[in-house]
Amino acid sequence: MINGNIDGIKKTILDTLENLIDYRIPKDKILDEFVVYTLLEVTDAINKEVLIVIDNSNTVVAVGVGDHKAATFPDISKRIKKRGLNGLMSFHTHPNGNPKLSSADMSSLLDIKFNLIGAIGKNSIKEPLINLGIINNDEGNLVVNEYGPFSINKLNQFHYSELVESVDSFLRSKIHVDTLEEEKAILVGVNTKSESILDIENSMEELRELTYTAGATPIDKLVQNKERIDNNFYIGKGKLEELRIMIQNNSCNLVICNDELTSIQLKVMETYLNVKIIDRTSLILDIFAKHAKTSEGKLQVELAQLKYRLPRLLGLGKVLSRTGGGIGTRGPGEKKLETDRRTIYKEIHILENKIKSMKNVRQQQKSRRIKNHIPVVSLVGYTNAGKSTLFNLLTASNVLSENKLFATLDATTRKFKNLDRELLLSDTVGFIDKLPHDLIKSFESTLEGLVDSDMLLHVIDSSNKNFLKQIQLVEEVLHSLKCSDKKIIYVFNKIDKMCDDFDSQASTIRGIKSMISAKQEIGVQELSKLIHKEIFGETIIREIKVPYFDTKYISSLHDLGIVLEEKYEEDGIIIKIQYTSEVEYLVQRYIQ
Ligand SMILES: Nc1nc2c(ncn2[C@@H]2O[C@H](COP(=O)(O)OP(=O)(O)OP(=O)(O)O)[C@@H](O)[C@H]2O)c(=O)[nH]1
Ligand SMILES: [Mg+2]
């Protein structure tokens, strides 16, 4: 795939570029003639910058048209490391022929942390000339040193590895990395005493967790008590001034608001504070963008992001586009987020169609499953409750489980044996307070699996003192997904570190309960039995006597897998069977 805007470029040219992907440059060279001349030839033809990215095995891993912005490089952004250089080299052409690095080149080198960056131009007799940029540690400050211009031969004799290694080890020392890329945030909330489930203190605490999960550092917080959220100033004009001073005193570059903001609120705050403003929704979307793994999950997040952006294009202002990175700018797969209204409408339409066709595929899988009669059990619960940990334990698989919010975004379903009976277990996205409505809608197609579940395991984090409120919220979401009448087991997880007051709080929950620690593997056997009992009914053990002539019946008991013992007597076989009420009608025949 060629990155960037390729509209209007002839197919033959695109093919030439495409050809470069996976091309391996000889080990002892930085660049070879084939690559350089191909890039120059294409540049001449289209009069635009053309660029390639080369990995540490000297293979061309990406090709693009246009500038270097990380966001246009789906495959590259994944490789950007939190520390150190990313092990990649990038070269691009300058259509004007001058190989001198531009300030944009230098800033993308610093942003993306390539091992080195090179600009390819030409001299007066059309021979290639190449300049290199390498990050240098100048007494703690990162600067770009420029080398060249080189001919291809001279370039390949240039010893750069020591320069690169020295800056790489410097970058790995944490303090400097932090000052380079840290997003320092002030968290802002309004205490409206409204019907929100979590009180303001817990809600702000959750916002702090979300901020960490998104990769920024919460520095301080500011809460305004107010009857209603201010339509223009969110926290009110006076408080905004207080916030401005707080930002200055702490050298922060980000404000994260605890509610979803309107376009006007975003714009007013940004204009007034001149830092990036992120609201709770876009923070969650950002985390979702980072965590979506399956193609359907990615499409759903992208759709939700576009729907979020559409009414806010005015508000998502200068600072966001100026910063060109960090929270609020990431798309799933690091696709550049659109800013043009018409394109967004088009994209939304395309995405909705794609998701619909995936839904059809799932529908077919579902009907196959129904034919096979395998019961489906789904894990639901607040984010971080331990659903994936339990999923892994029950199915002995390895789904990402992390002490981060929204580690799981895509519903994962696995077949597993629960006490000798096959079941399908689904792990799902965690819920959270003020989960944006559009987001639930976007995830409906993944979550609609819940409606088809035979039973839900509502996993609860017993170590969280707010677990009752979390239960309440999960039940509200289940209700909105039309799942509240499902059979539910309340699985109180993390009993190895249950919060104070757990017993009295948990006793207020009515229903089938199970106490476990998925991490310490406590109570899991009992849970398996409970699942079995709730799905298949109580297990009954009986002895029946079947006459010898009814061999067909005997073999059908074996087929059901319920025979424990057989004793042969004169007038028949005494068979000890273990069965659940769902097959009662089949074993009725010889029960006295
Ligand atoms: N102490 C303790 N920690 C647990 C237990 N079960 C899970 N955890 C931890 O809780 C954190 C969250 O676990 P996950 O399984 O990722 O939670 P989840 O519900 O899947 O979270 P999302 O996918 O984000 O919704 C991880 O750090 C787990 O190790 C437990 O029984 N006891
Ligand atoms: Mg999970």
Automatic annotation (TrEMBL):
| InterPro entries, A to Z | G_HFLX_dom, GTP-bd, GTP-bd_M, GTPase_HflX, GTPase_HflX_N, GTPase_HflX_N_sf, P-loop_NTPase
The alphabetized UniProt keywords are: Cytoplasm, GTP-binding, Magnesium, Metal-binding, Nucleotide-binding
- The answer to keyword Nucleotide-binding applying to this record is yes
Question: Is Metal-binding a UniProt keyword of this protein?
Answer: yes
Residue span(s) of domain Hflx-type G: 375-539
Quote the subcellular location field of this record: Cytoplasm
Q: Which GO terms describe its molecular function?
A: GTP binding; GTPase activity; metal ion binding; ribosome binding
Which GO cellular component does the record give, naming just one?
cytoplasm
Q: Give the transmembrane ranges.
A: none
Describe the function of this protein: GTPase that associates with the 50S ribosomal subunit and may have a role during protein synthesis or ribosome biogenesis.
Assembly mode = Monomer. Associates with the 50S ribosomal subunit.
For this chain, the family text in UniProt reads: Belongs to the TRAFAC class OBG-HflX-like GTPase superfamily. HflX GTPase family.
Return the protein name. Answer: GTPase HflX
Q: What is the species of this protein?
A: Alkalibaculum sporogenes
What is the taxonomic lineage of the source species?
Bacteria, Bacillati, Bacillota, Clostridia, Eubacteriales
